[in-house]
Structure formats: structure tokens, C-alpha cells
Amino acid sequence: MSTKDKIITTSIMLFNQHGERAVTTNHIASHMGISPGNLYYHFKNKEDIIRHIFALYSKHLHTQFVPMEKQDEALTHLTGYLDALFELMWRFHFFYDNLGDILSRDDVLKKDYIEFQEALLSQVREIVIGLREGGMIAIDDEDTVELAHVLKITVSFWTPYIKARRLSGELMQQDIYNGILKVLALFKAFGTEQSIPRINLLREKYSKLAAQAEPV
Amino acid sequence: MSTKDKIITTSIMLFNQHGERAVTTNHIASHMGISPGNLYYHFKNKEDIIRHIFALYSKHLHTQFVPMEKQDEALTHLTGYLDALFELMWRFHFFYDNLGDILSRDDVLKKDYIEFQEALLSQVREIVIGLREGGMIAIDDEDTVELAHVLKITVSFWTPYIKARRLSGELMQQDIYNGILKVLALFKAFGTEQSIPRINLLREKYSKLAAQAEPV
User: Domain HTH tetR-type, which positions (chains A, B) (predicted)?
Assistant: First the structure.
């Protein structure tokens, strides 16, 4: 791994652990055993590191949204998405802990974030429409965008929601399964006769996984 | 209004406007034209002010959750709740902008917050069950708690969600109507033959109000 990549990986770890606000470039360099000068050779400042992390996060998120090929496999695809999505939110959870703060400090990042969110909303909506075309959900046209927004909010703010409900403020990787259960409950609300038994099976699977996490 | 109350009101306004992080007790005192000593006579520090604001917010939120009396009026009650809830989230929006940060600095506040969230979850679930008993929604028992969580996340993080999607980062009071539309779409997903036409009427009402806000 290059020094540049190591700086990114170390920053993500420290931001998640201590909160982005508490971690300086000096902490990052010292944790890696490199000089601040070496860090500044690769990144201008902390904002520069965060921009690179956001680009990484966007790229990962983007590659998850491959279009569905077979409609009848829509639900299988869905759980693939959900696993990857929540895992991603967990891996970069510092970002949504301090979203407003981070965005208000960097206009370039904010612009990128807004564009990315727009594209994401369309992609989530396409998944919703894909599920409808596959007969997995029944939903009016005007509700597809509303559902897409609620799904985005639930996925994005799942980690800060859990952290705020826990005295330790700590997040476990297993917490993502409780988040997936919320999304499944949403899809079940729009579910069809054909899909509800399958959604219930998925719920059983994730309930077992979620049982390994602290209750929420 | 007493000086103590004025300090609270001014703090809420400044926190919402500039973000809690950027506002010090000196800013608050200077904005009111009082000495820092006078402010410290009423509050020990900024955390003390925030605790008082949280108590105010909790009290307001609590008084909104009066039990429903007549089941057939469940939907009318619901929009009363939603109006009041989102208005409250708007009035105290700085809190959810920096939730993790604010809670991590004050263990007493965090404990209060967690207890309050537990009580709130039960109350939201009771409303969901009330709507079911009134024939307004059809929902399985196990889904009531999932829906309550999703409703809480949507309402709580609505204001930071909107702010993050806007280059100015500014929030308008009309933005709450777009949030109410998301909640109505959720209830519609669980709606019954009897309630869906009424939910659609409510949606029309709030769509008109939301049209006054910037699109999201």
C-alpha cells in the first residue's frame, strides 16, 4: 500500500474511532510514524484528505448500483445492495456523524456531495421501480420518489441514530443488520402477495444476524 | 421575559443560524448586550445552556403526545402531531445538525437523551397502534416497532438531510412540509381502503404548502 493510501486508511480509522473533529493531521502522521511534512507532501490539509475519502466512498457506492438484469431476481439483488450499502455506511460512519460540519467547511466537497446525492436519489428510485416491475412491490408513481428519500435518510442516518442511542457511543459492525431490518420493513409495507413471504424469510435471516448486536 | 429565558431564546437562534459549534457564551452575551458575568450568573457554561434547551425541547415534544381519544379522528390527530413535531424539529434544528458531537461532550445530557428516545419510541409506537385500531393502517405487530424507528429517523434527521442537500445550507420553515409528505407516504404504504383517499387529500394540502419551499 502506498503512503498516500495508508494516510487515507489511517484517517478513516481514526475519524471513525474518535470523531472527525478530534483528529488533526498531526495525529494521523504520528499514528503512522511519519513526519507531518511527509503527510503534507501527499495532502494539502485535512479537508484534502476528507475530499479523497468522500471520492472513495462515492466510488464504492456507485459501483454497488449496477442495474438489475433479471426482474425475478430483484429481491436477491436487493439484499446484495443492502449488505453492501450498510457495510459502506458503517465503514465511513464518521462522515454522517458530523455531516453538516464537514460540508460547511468545504464548498467544493459540498457541491460534489449534492451532485452525488441527486444521482443517488435517481438510482434508489430506479431500484424501487425495478422492484415494482418485478412484481415485488406495488407503489404509485408519485410515491416512488418519496420512498427513495425515506430510504436514503434511513440508510444515511442509521449509524448516527444508533450511536446517539448508546451511552458508549460505540458502533458495532452487527448494527448494520438492524438497519437492514428497517429497510426490509419499508419494502414489506409496499410488498405484494408474491414478495411478502420472501421478505419475511429475509427478515428472519437478518434478525438472527442482528441478535449478535446490542439491542436498539 | 427573564434574562435566563432570553439567554435560552438567543442561544437557540444563534445555534440554528451559525451552528452550535461556532457559537460561544461570549457571542451569546455580546449579542444580548449583557456581560459574560451576567450570563454565567444564570448558566455555568454552554453545556448548561444546551441542557436547558434540551429540557425545553423534550417538554414541548412530550406535550404533543397526548393520547388519542376518538379512533375515527386518528388521522386528524396525526396531522396535528406532524405539524407540531416538524415545527419543533425546525425550531431546534441545530441539535440534530451536531447530535453526536453535542452528546459526546456531556454524559448527563446523553443519558437524558437516551431515556427520552426510549419513551418517544414507545409513544410513536402507540400512535401507530392507535392508527391500526382506528382502521387507518394495516400492520403486523412485529412491524410496528420497525415503523416507529423509521418514523423517528425520518423526523429527527429531516432538517440535516435538507441542509446537506442545499449549497447555502439554509433551512426554511416551509421545508417541514416536505418532511411531512415523507411521513404521509410511509403511512399510505400501510394505509387501508378507508384511509388512503384521506391520506391523499392530506398529501395535496401539504404539497401546496411544500411548493413554497425550495425543491429537494
Answer: 1-61
